[in-house]
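To the wet lab folks,

You asked to see what we're planning to order before we commit. Fair enough. Below is the target structure as tokens, and below that is the sequence we designed to fit it. If anything looks off to you, flag it before the synthesis order goes out.
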């Protein structure tokens, strides 16, 4: 279940609990409090995570290629000595 779906489900349950209650501002305040708390946790969506994982994969591939190239150049330099 995604974070937004979790918030929506939680919000719906809270609305159902306080429907008709004089505590009309409770839902708004509680939702803001929960969003603030989850924001402090610095959570990311699954989509953001997957994008960053792909960026990391590509970066690792480039690093490995550069390391291989440096090793190759070092071997050439040693052979020339």
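Sequence we intend to order:
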């Amino acid at each position: 279940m995604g974070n937004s779906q979790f918030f929506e489900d939680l919000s719906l349950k809270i609305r159902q609990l306080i429907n008709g209650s004089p505590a009309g501002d409770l839902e708004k305040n509680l939702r803001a409090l929960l969003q603030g708390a989850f924001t402090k946790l610095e959570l990311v969506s699954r989509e953001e995570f997957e994008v960053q994982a792909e960026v990391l994969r590509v970066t690792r591939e480039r690093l490995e290629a550069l390391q291989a190239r440096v090793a190759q150049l070092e071997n050439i330099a040693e052979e020339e000595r």
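Structural context that might help your review: The chain has a mean pLDDT of 85. Helices lie at 3-18, 24-40, 46-80.

Thanks,
Computational group
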